[in-house]
Amino acid sequence: MKQNLMSKTRGSAWKPILIGCGVVVFLGLVTFAVLGFFGYRAYKSRVATNPLDAELKAREIMYYAIPGGSKGIFSLDLSKDMGMKMAVVQSVTTSPAVILVVAKVPESMGKDASKTIEEQFQNSTKDDKHMVVQKSYIQKGTLCGEQTNLLFKEGTMESHG
């Protein structure tokens, strides 16, 4: 009789511990799901891989016309966080492809911004290709009604390896 009473007491001691562990695991899963949901929404509101959305973002930054038409590849909008917008578009019919990278960055970002933009572009190209710059120059121009320096880079797309 004494042994039966002791085994019932031991079994019931585990019950609150198991329930507590279950509650902690459940709360962890709920927290993970909520953070994932808001993280995904933040990502989707800043990054566009849809060609139409990417091209709209490029046209927000500046007006351009590529002969034969263009399609968007990628856009990134960090204007609320860092004051920076960037978009990549390419020609539809021109061969070899014309790729236009437009960006609006705060003056405070300076030269670091062009390096960041170039890295983003290199990472966004598909099929294990990267751009080999053959010519780079700066030219004064007008964008969005303001005088500014325009950075031009010409080159070819080559496979990694």
In total, the number of strands is 6
Low-confidence parts lasting 5 or more residues at pLDDT below 50? none
How much helix, percentage-wise, in residues? 40-55%
User: Outline, from the CA principal axes?
Assistant: elongated
Largest sheet: 4 strands, antiparallel
Q: End-to-end span in angstroms?
A: 78 Å
Oligomer: single chain
Overall average pLDDT: 76
- Rounded to an integer in angstroms, the radius of gyration calculated over CA atoms is 27 Å
Report the β-strand fraction as a percent range.
Answer: 25-35%
**Strand arrangement in the largest pleated sheet:** 1-2-3-4
Query: Could you spell the SSE succession in H and E letters?
Result: HEHEEEHEE
Summing up helix and strand content along with how strands pair, one would put the structural category as: alpha+beta
Number of helices: 3
